[in-house]
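Posting for a labmate who doesn't have an account.
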Amino acid sequence: MAGKHFLGLIFVGILAFIGTTNGQLQMNFYAKSCPKAEKIVQDYVSKHIPNAPSLAASFIRMHFHDCFVRGCDASVLLNSTSSSNPNPEKNAVPNQTLRGFDFIDRVKSLLEAECPGIVSCADILTLIARDSVVTIGGPFWKVPTGRRDGLISNAAEANASIPGPFSNFTTLLRLFNNQGLDARDLVLTSGAHTIGLAHCPAVSRRLYNSSGPGGVDPTLDSEYAANLKANKCRTPNDNTTKLEMDPGSRNTFDLSYYTLLTKRRGLFQSDAALTTDQTSLALINQLLSSPLSFFYSEFAKSMEKMGQINVKTGTQGDWV
């Protein structure tokens, strides 16, 4: 785990931490035990994300993938370090394209220098996800802290729990419901696709192996599909080419992702699926007819909700 294994450091002993002991997250949990913690994270993110803005999407994705497997406990950061943990979440198919682990390690090293053994990796990941989005001009949401780190990381659980790019609406909603999230949360958190990049394997099936003319998914706009086949994913076996999830606006946290959905230009099958349900489609249209601030405030609510999925607090889990 970033923080458990960064720079080979091992922390031993019983940690006496200052903060809440009632097993609940709270704002400014580290106010007494590590008062500069959140500023250290924010300062590092605001300094480095402008040089690599696509990492904002990476951290939102990593946070999402972490929370959907055993809760927001940083188990996605665990490495395979023993026979009892031979196949961690990092090895799961949805996680093989995650990036930014070294960034998290660097933030963790700064926090360890300031207050050793205090700030959990789960809180670090959650804060970085929020702060990186804010740094590129996206919405702010509250991040109560006090999460403890998980000790179990299983690739099979990640493969079963994380929605894939080919999921239909029924599957998406079921996986969200499993985490205590609803259709509204599904639509709003999917709005994070307004930033970032994808790889051809996530869309090639829609371009070459579907039921439409030329193998193209009939739910995908034909002009958009032709452009992707001509200029991006030129063969069905292209595993390396990157493409924008929100063409022309991938570093701007805006509503253009939802506009593309209504034009049948959502990149993933799971994006297109959001328009196949009347309740979901109604929310998309509401977002598009409302000020950007409405999307920001609603997105914030869903992110705050997601960030508290099955969190470990108090004496649960591990601390660093």
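Reply:
Got it, the structure tokens are right above this. The two ends are 9 Å apart (CA to CA).
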